[in-house]
Write a structure and sequence with these properties.
Number of domains: 2
Largest sheet: 10 strands, mixed
CATH topology of the largest domain: Phosphoenolpyruvate Carboxykinase, domain 3
CATH class of the largest domain: Alpha Beta
Distance between the termini: 98 Å
Radius of gyration: 25 Å
Length: about 625
C-alpha cells in the first residue's frame, strides 16, 4: 500500500489515522493519496484526467484553466429517492425523509464498500466548511476514489494541509464516498465510473457521518454540500442552538452608504442565484454577495444573528445563466472553473441553452454526440463549479471568521397568483409560519407536474436532516435566544405573478427586484410605511419605487392584491399539508394557521357588510 505522504507526517490526529486505516482495510484501494490542497495538486490531478480521457481542457484563450466533463447519462442529478436519514428512531427522520434502520443500512453499506476501491486510488480530503478557525465553521474528512470529486472540493471548500494543521485533536465529520466501480487488474476504467443500480446517499445523524455509494455527481459525491452543510449540519444546529439553512446571503448598501445583510430561502427555479448576484437597476444601490446557496447562522455575544457561507465556491445550474440574466455569475466562471454536462463548441469552449441568443454551430452535446436541434445541447441540470472569490461583487467580509450580521430573512416561491409581490411578517412566530408555508408551482423540470403546487418548507424539503416538525419547533423558539431589538424582520416574496391570461409575468424581476429589497431595507428601521392585511404587512403603492417601469395602477394593485377567497382556500391547502406531521406539528404552527384563518374570515365579513346612507 503506497501513500504519497507518510500518514504520521501528514497528521497526528489519532481518530483521523484510525478512520483512514479502517477505510483502507474496508475498501482495499491500490494506493492512498493524502490531499495537500495546493494548486500543483489540482493541476496534476486535472492533467491526469485529461490524459485518461475523462476531462477535456477548454480553450485557454477563452476560458483559462477550465475543464469539461460529461457524466454517465444515468448519473446526472440528486437522487432523492435513494437519499436516507438513518436516525435511531424513525420518528426522528419524519414524514418528509426516507428512513431506514441504521443497523441494517450499515450492513448493506459495508457489503457494498468492501473492496469498492480495488484498483483505484483512495483520496483523503480534509476540508473546512466556513473560514478555517471560525467559531461558526466545522471540519469534515471526505474519503473518495474520484479525482473529479477532489478537484471540485478544491473549489467548493477550504481544503488541504491547512485544515489538518488546524484540526489537531478535534473531532470531524466522517464523509465516505465511492463511485462503486472497483477495477480488476489490467481492466480499463470507464470515462465516468458509477453504479446506478446501487446508489445510496446515507446520513447517520447520531454518528454525524455520511456514506455515499454509486454516484459521482454533484451533491451525491461532493459531501460537503447538501449532505454535510444541510442534512448533518441541521441536526447539529438543532442540538447546539444555531441554524443551518438553504439560504443565500447578500449585502445591500443604500445610496447614503448604509449597509445591511439579508438571507433568503427559495425553492429551485425561483431566482436564488440571480438574487444573490443582483445588478441593481436603482441608481446608488449596491449588492454584494456572501453566498448563493447555504447559510450557517449563530448568535453572537451582541445578541445578533451572524451568518457565514460554509462554501468557498459556486456549484450552479448552467442552463438559463447568461450575461443578461446573471452577469456576475457569468463573470465568476470565466476561468478556473469546471463544467459538467454542458455542450462543447468547436473551438473548445462551453455552451448551454439560454447562454446566448444564437446557438453555435457544430457543437458536441452533453452525451458526446453531434448536436441536433431535436435535443438539448446541455443537460437541464448541467453545472459549473467556480471559485467564489472570482465573483465581481463578492463581499469584503466573505472570509471574515466572525461572519456578517443579519437584518432580514426572506422566504419566497413561484406562484402564478394568490401570493402578492411582497409582504412582511407581523413578528418572529408569524415569520416562522411563513417559512413553514413556502410552496412553489413546479416547472417543466418535473415531468407531468407542470403547475402542480409543491410544498417546500423553508426551501429545506430535501435537505432537513431530521423531523421537519421538530425543525419548525426549533425556529419557533429561536427568537428567545436573540435580543428583541436585534431580531431580523421576516418577509415573503413572489416574483412570478402572471397576468389574467396566465401568459406573462407582470413584475419585471431580475435587476428590478432591488425595488422590493429597498422597501424591506427601509422597513428594517421602520422608515417606510405599510398596510396591514390579513396575511401580513404589504407596501403602500406609493412606498414601492417603480419609477421608470411603466406599470399601470391596475398592475400595481394586482401585484399587491390580497384575494380573500383564494386565501381561504390557501388556508385549507396548508391545513391539509401540515396534517402529514400529525401530532408532532408544533402548537405554534397550529396557532398561526388558526390566526390566519380568523383574520381572513374577519376581513371577508367586513367586506360583505352592507353600507348605509344617512
Amino acid at each position: 500500500m503506497d501513500f504519497n505522504i507518510p500518514l504520521d507526517e501528514w497528521t497526528a490526529n489519532k481518530n483521523l489515522k484510525k478512520f483512514i486505516k479502517d477505510k483502507i482495510d474496508l475498501c482495499k484501494p491500490k494506493n492512498v493519496y493524502l490531499c495537500s490542497g495546493t494548486k500543483e495538486e489540482y493541476d496534476e490531478l486535472m492533467n491526469q484526467m485529461v490524459i485518461d480521457g475523462k476531462a477535456i481542457k477548454l480553450n485557454d484563450q477563452k476560458r483559462p484553466n477550465s475543464y469539461f466533463f460529461k457524466s454517465d447519462p444515468e448519473d446526472v442529478a440528486r437522487v432523492e429517492e435513494r437519499t436516507f436519514i438513518c436516525s435511531e428512531k424513525e420518528i426522528d427522520a419524519g414524514p418528509t425523509n426516507n428512513w431506514h434502520n441504521p443497523n441494517e443500512m450499515k450492513i448493506k453499506l459495508l457489503n457494498l464498500f468492501d473492496g469498492s476501491m480495488q484498483g483505484r486510488t483512495m483520496y483523503v480530503i480534509p476540508f473546512s466548511m466556513g473560514p478555517i478557525g471560525s467559531d461558526k465553521s466545522h471540519i469534515g474528512i471526505e474519503i473518495t476514489d474520484s479525482a473529479y470529486v477532489v478537484c471540485n472540493m478544491h473549489i467548493m471548500t477550504r481544503m488541504g494541509k491547512k485544515v489538518i494543521d488546524h484540526l489537531k485533536d478535534e473531532d470531524f465529520i466522517e464523509c465516505m464516498h465511492s463511485v462503486g466501480k472497483p477495477l480488476q487488474e489490467n481492466e480499463k476504467d470507464t470515462l465516468w465510473p458509477c453504479d446506478p443500480e446501487n446508489r445510496y446517499i446515507v446520513h447517520f445523524p447520531e454518528e454525524k457521518s455520511i456514506w455515499s455509494y454509486g454516484s459521482g455527481y454533484g451533491g451525491n459525491a461532493l459531501l460537503g454540500k447538501k449532505c454535510f452543510a444541510l442534512r448533518i449540519a441541521s441536526t447539529m444546529a438543532k442540538k447546539d442552538g444555531w441554524l443551518a439553512e438553504h439560504m443565500l446571503i447578500l449585502g445591500i448598501t443604500n445610496p447614503e452608504g448604509e449597509k445591511k445583510y439579508f438571507v433568503a430561502a427559495f425553492p429551485s427555479a425561483c431566482g436564488k442565484t440571480n438574487m444573490a448576484m443582483l445588478n441593481p437597476s436603482l441608481p446608488g444601490w449596491k449588492i454584494e454577495c456572501i453566498g448563493d446557496d447555504i447559510a450557517w447562522m449563530k448568535i453572537s455575544e451582541d445578541g445578533r444573528l451572524w451568518a457565514i457561507n460554509p462554501e468557498a465556491g459556486f456549484f450552479g445550474v448552467a442552463p438559463g445563466t447568461s450575461y443578461d440574466t446573471n452577469y456576475n455569475a457569468m463573470k465568476s466562471l470565466e476561468k478556473n472553473s469546471i463544467f459538467t454536462n454542458v455542450a462543447l463548441t468547436q473551438d473548445n469552449d462551453v455552451w448551454w441553452e439560454g447562454m446566448t441568443k444564437n446557438e453555435p454551430e457544430n457543437m458536441i452535446n452533453w452525451l458526446g454526440k453531434k448536436h441536433s436541434k431535436e435535443e438539448k445541447a446541455a443537460h437541464p441540470n448541467a453545472r459549473f463549479t467556480s471559485p467564489a472569490h472570482q465573483c465581481p461583487i463578492i463581499d469584503k467580509d466573505f472570509e471574515n471568521p466572525k461572519g456578517v450580521p443579519i437584518s432580514a430573512i426572506i422566504f419566497g416561491g413561484r406562484r402564478d397568483d394568490v401570493v402578492p409581490l411582497v409582504y412582511e411578517a407581523f413578528d418572529w412566530q408569524h415569520g416562522t409560519f411563513l417559512g413553514a408555508s413556502v410552496s412553489s408551482q413546479m416547472t417543466a423540470a418535473a415531468k407531468g407536474n407542470i403547475g402542480k403546487l409543491r410544498h417546500d418548507p423553508f426551501a429545506m424539503l430535501p435537505f432537513c436532516g431530521y423531523n421537519m416538525a421538530d425543525y419548525f419547533d426549533h425556529w419557533l423558539g429561536f427568537d428567545k435566544k436573540m435580543t428583541s431589538k436585534n431580531l431580523p424582520k421576516i418577509f415573503y416574496v413572489n416574483w412570478f405573478l402572471k397576468d389574467e391570461n396566465q401568459k406573462g409575468f407582470i413584475w419585471p424581476g431580475f435587476s428590478d427586484n432591488i425595488r422590493v429589497l429597498k422597501w424591506m431595507f427601509e422597513r428594517v428601521d421602520n422608515k417606510v410605511g405599510f398596510k396591514k392585511t390579513a396575511i401580513g404587512n404589504i407596501p403602500n403603492i406609493e412606498d414601492l419605487n417603480v419609477d421608470g417601469l411603466n406599470l399601470s395602477k391596475n398592475t400595481l394593485e394586482k401585484l399587491l392584491e390580497i384575494d380573500l377567497d383564494k386565501w381561504e382556500k390557501e388556508v385549507l391547502e396548508l391545513k391539509n399539508y401540515f396534517s402529514i406531521f400529525k401530532d408532532k406539528l408544533p402548537e405554534g404552527i397550529i396557532d398561526q394557521l388558526n390566526k390566519l384563518n380568523e383574520r381572513v374570515l374577519k376581513e371577508k365579513s367586513k367586506r360583505c357588510e352592507p353600507s348605509y346612507k344617512e
